[in-house]
Amino acid sequence: MADLQVQVSARTPTGKKKPTSHTGAVTRTVWGEDGPLGLSGVDQASGANTFDVVGLSADGKTLQIVEAKGGASQLSKTGRIVGTDAYGNPIRAAQGSTDYLNNLLRTDKNLRALFKARPDIAQGLKDGSIRIEYSVARAPGNGTATVTDLIIDRSSLDLSFLP
Question: For residue 82, is it within any domain?
Fold first, then answer.
């Protein structure tokens, strides 16, 4: 088992983000020597409408996407609006779901920059030589960190937007 540096943000009582860092044993580490993404010139900052961490495995066969949660924070059940129904009502997808993943894959500005800078990654996703894995990293504030795989419905994974 390897150690993985997990960067999370916690909110202070005033609502400001307070960065925290925890290291702990995890079940799987996919990062190469350069860490997550390992690409110069690609903004890896997280925030609204972006994944928290994206990394490419050392062997280049796995694009790992991580939702980072600190303290008592959980995956959002209300998630994000991913479309509208036939009556114009918003359709929401819970954070960690395949629908949520599909929506952010299409809209994450950091991923768009990645696919532009590294068209080989986009091509690998399209032809199946690179597989997407989705997980949640939790750092509850007690010095431990866990990473849990999220289940992707591969039959619903939509990569049709790739260049």
Answer: yes
